[in-house]
Amino acid sequence: MNILLIGFMGCGKTTLGKKLAMKMDLNFIDLDEMIAEVEQMSIPELFKCKGEKYFRALETEWLSRFDGEGYVISLGGGSPCFNENMKLINSIGTSVYLQMNSDLLRDRLLDSKQKRPLIEAFKNDKTKLALEIDKLLKGREGFYNKANIIFEASNMSDTKLDCLVKLVM
Question: What is the C-alpha to C-alpha distance for residues 59 and 73, in angstroms, rounded to an integer?
Answer without folding.
Answer: 12
